[in-house]
Specification:
By secondary structure, the protein is of the alpha/beta class. It folds into two domains: about 210 residues, YjeF N-terminal domain (Rossmann fold), CATH 3.40.50.10260; about 300 residues, 3-Layer(aba) Sandwich (UDP-N-acetylmuramoyl-L-alanine:D-glutamate ligase), CATH 3.40.1190.20. It has 18 helices and 19 strands. The chain has a ten-stranded mixed sheet, sandwiched between helices. Strands 3-2-1-4-5-6-7 form a seven-stranded parallel sheet, with helices on both faces. Helix 7 crosses helix 17, helix 8 crosses helix 16 and helix 16 packs across helix 17. InterPro entries: Carbohydrate_kinase_pred_CS, CARKD, Nnr, Ribokinase-like, YjeF_N_dom, YjeF_N_dom_sf. Its cofactor is K(+); Mg(2+).
Length: about 525
């Protein structure tokens, strides 16, 4: 953001203009959330830098609209301080807390206030909170226990939350909403700090169009972008228009995984779905999936796919537009040989391929597998599977999810979908035409839904992304779009019934309405 503001200055939009825009945008958002501010008690907690200055602009506008505003200065401010002076001229009560006013005075202010705005510390602070700032934030946090409590809004990010890593101080209150200025900061979408953010809202602060965006390698998946990616459905289309997906999944112990992938692929719009399963699994899934084409595969004595099945798939590979493999396959010497024959040594690299679940676990057992294959590839590990693939611990995988996804996407030259809260979708970095390294883009999901912490939801995501691959989306775009649709569909289910007891199949059933609600026009 500092670099973007500097570039904005060079293009003629001053930092002061951005500050004024930001303050007005925050004030408008606060007024909208409160249903009007006339006569309302408001406390703005002000720190030393630009974050505090933004807060003083907010205070001025809220006072202009009739609120009773107190700006509490928790640290020293520049002298002179034009933003504070202007706020005073509009009737804002500006108090230096701890100097001319006792800290206990804040308790009375908080008790009478309908709104508290945290504008103390912004992106430049990462040290532990201490002293007056810590004491004040603990008092603000205590207001959440009251029956009549103020609305808590953080300006740009909650004080004490690291903007890069998501690390957070234990004194940082849980906000009702965080109003990110210009762009959301990565730490707002990383735990443990994300638990303090509340609703995340991004506000336009008037950065010139396109300023610096070629240099940003981290994006938030948005409804507008996803809407632009959803394949059109022309009136003269037919089943062949929307592609043919081959799903290789299931075993005697994991029949449901195969059904979940195939059904989700149908619900996400694939024209045709063929499900390849072990011979003993075929009659079970065929009775549940009447719209699906079925391909029985040779199996071993335990009801898992046999190594010979790779050749069966190779022989009919030209019929399909994409392949999704791995869900519920299990692990054995036969499945290992099957994955090697299918994904590494065979011609499957000629079509977009997604590998999930036991496909990943088997792939991890093949030395240097990524050097032995080519072609469009999507890998969708959860943190445990990512640890297996990389040889790292789950803790190391989770420490910086965006960087982890990008690093291994580059190593494997594949799209990596690192699942979990705020799923990270990374494309590989590649050399550019001028000889420099093009840093691969990472797209972050805006969804963190505990309802998805149940078996089978990852299989549904596999079906959605596989379906979009078959419909012709590029692997990186199909992955990002699929992650968003999966999250939005799950959000619709949990909104209706809560996060407890969500079934993976319910996410699939919510997909058509979700997709249609996002379709342009």
């Amino acid at each position: 953001m500092t670099a973007l503001e500097q570039e904005s200055e060079r293009q003629g939009t001053s930092t002061d203009t951005l500050m004024e825009n930001a303050g007005l945008a925050v004030a408008l958002e606060a007024r909208q959330r409160m249903g009007g501010v006339a006569g309302a008690g408001v406390v703005v907690l002000v720190g030393p830098g630009n974050n505090g200055a933004d807060g003083l602009v907010v205070a001025r506008h809220l006072r202009r609209w009739g609120a009773e505003v107190t700006a509490c200065l928790l640290t020293s401010r520049p002298d002179p301080d034009p933003k504070a002076d202007l706020a005073r001229s509009y009737g804002v009560s500006v108090l230096a807390l701890g100097e001319d006013t006792e800290v206990e005075f804040l308790d009375g202010l908080l008790a009478r206030s309908r709104l508290v705005i945290d504008a103390i510390l912004g992106t430049g602070r990462s040290r532990p909170l201490q002293g007056l700032v810590r004491e004040v934030l603990l008092r603000v946090a205590a207001t959440r226990k009251r029956s009549r409590r103020p609305l808590l809004l953080a300006l740009d990010l909650p004080t004490g939350l690291n903007a890069d890593t998501g690390a957070v101080d234990d004194a940082t209150p849980v906000m009702d909403a965080t109003l990110a200025l210009g762009f959301p900061k990565a730490g707002l979408l990383a735990f443990p700090g994300a638990e303090r953010v509340g609703e995340l809202v991004t506000l336009d602060i008037g950065l010139p169009d396109g300023v610096g965006q070629d240099d940003i390698s981290l994006e938030l998946l948005t409804v507008d972008w996803v809407s632009s990616q959803i394949p059109p459905r022309p009136l003269d289309s037919h089943k062949g228009t929307y592609g043919h997906l081959l799903v290789v999944a299931g075993s005697r112990n994991f029949v449901g995984a195969a059904c979940l992938v195939a059904r989700a692929a149908h619900r996400a719009g694939a024209g045709l779905v063929t499900l390849a399963t072990p011979e003993s699994v075929y009659p079970i899934v065929a009775s549940q999936l009447t719209e699906t084409i079925h391909l029985p595969l040779p199996e071993d004595a335990e009801g898992r796919v046999h190594a010979d099945a790779a050749q069966v798939i190779h022989e009919g590979l030209t019929r399909y537009d994409a392949l999704a493999v791995g869900s519920g396959l299990g692990q054995s010497e036969n499945t290992l040989a099957f994955i090697e024959g299918l994904l590494v040594d065979g011609p499957v690299s000629t079509i977009p391929t997604l590998v999930d679940a036991d496909g990943l676990n088997n792939l991890a057992r093949l030395p240097d597998w990524w050097q032995r294959r080519s072609g469009p590839l999507v890998l969708t590990p959860h943190p445990g599977e990512m640890a297996t693939l990389t040889g790292l611990s789950t803790l190391e995988v989770q420490r910086d999810r965006a960087a982890m996804a990008r690093q291994w996407a580059t190593q494997w030259q594949a799209v990596v979908v690192l699942k979990g809260a705020f799923t990270a979708v990374a494309e590989p970095s590649v050399p550019s035409t001028n000889g420099e390294q093009y840093e691969g883009l990472v797209r972050l999901s805006p969804f963190a839904n505990p309802g998805l912490a149940s078996g089978g939801t990852g299989d549904v995501l596999t079906g959605i992304i596989g379906s979009l691959l078959a419909q012709g989306l590029a692997p990186f775009d199909a992955s990002g779009c699929g992650v968003y649709l999966h999250g939005q569909a799950a959000a619709a289910v949990t909104s209706a019934q809560g996060p407890v007891g969500l079934l993976a199949s319910e996410v699939s059933e919510a997909l058509p309405l979700t997709i249609n609600s996002l379709r342009p026009g």
